[in-house]
Amino acid sequence: MTTLRPRLLLHVCCGPCATVVLERLLPRFDIACLWFNPNIQPAAEHDLRLENAQVVAEHFGVEMMVEPREEEAWLRVVAGHEHAPEGGTRCTLCIAWRLQWAAQVAAAGGYEFLATTLTVGPRKPAKVIHPQGQEAAQKAGLQFLAEDFGRAGGFARSVELSRQLGLYRQRYCGCNFARR
């Protein structure tokens, strides 16, 4: 007898963070990954991170959907918050917008759950991310999986898996404002 697992769309911020999240969630969910990160600048950095995320998706045997970059739209979302500190209002707006986009894709694709890899890294606290994900999921008729994937050794495990897979590990969150 085959047991159907719930379908989850996983918003992926980078390959290293996706490693531990996929490792933890694949036993519980049927997962497809979504790449939507118009905040990552410059374009070469965006493409390098996407390549590494695709390596992880292939390693774990999951589909990676890639959305258009939409950098100009992202700039409009964060306009007026360019000088906000890392982790401030600019980041909250950016996270909310990307998760709203992901929730729309998930709803259109018939997924039941939405999750994000954003909580793996130490600079993006779950207490900021989870409310944005919950709101986006609720509006789209989905459930948000509010797990802090950086806890219980999650960040360290992502570093270990990244080394094993030979992944590029970035040194800044993504946007040029944070890089400064």
Task: Please trace the helix and strand order, writing H or E for each element.
Answer: EHEHEHHEHEHH
Structural class: alpha/beta
Shape: globular
Give the biggest sheet.
Answer: 5 strands, parallel
CATH topology: Rossmann fold
Q: Tell me, rounded to a whole number, the average pLDDT.
A: 94
Distance between the termini: 55 Å
Q: Any idea what the CATH superfamily is called?
A: HUPs
List the uncertain runs: none
Q: Which sequence of strands runs across the widest sheet? A: 3-2-1-4-5
Topology:
Elements: E1 7-12, H1 15-25, E2 30-35, H2 43-60, E3 63-66, H3 71-78, H4 89-108, E4 113-116, H5 126-140, E5 143-144, H6 154-165, H7 176-179
Parallel strand pairs: 1-2, 1-4, 2-3, 4-5
Helix pairs in contact: 1-2, 1-6, 4-5
Structural write-up:
The chain has 180 residues and is α/β, with parallel strands linked by helices. It has a single domain (7-179), classed as HUPs (Rossmann fold). The protein has seven helices and five strands; from the N terminus they run βαβαβααβαβαα. The protein has helices spanning 15-25, 43-60, 71-78, 89-108, 126-140, 154-165, 176-179, and strands spanning 7-12, 30-35, 63-66, 113-116, 143-144. It has a five-stranded parallel beta sheet with strand order 3-2-1-4-5, sandwiched between helices. Strand 1, helix 1 (15-25) and strand 2 (30-35) form a beta-alpha-beta unit. Helix 1 crosses helix 6 (154-165) and helix 4 packs parallel to helix 5.
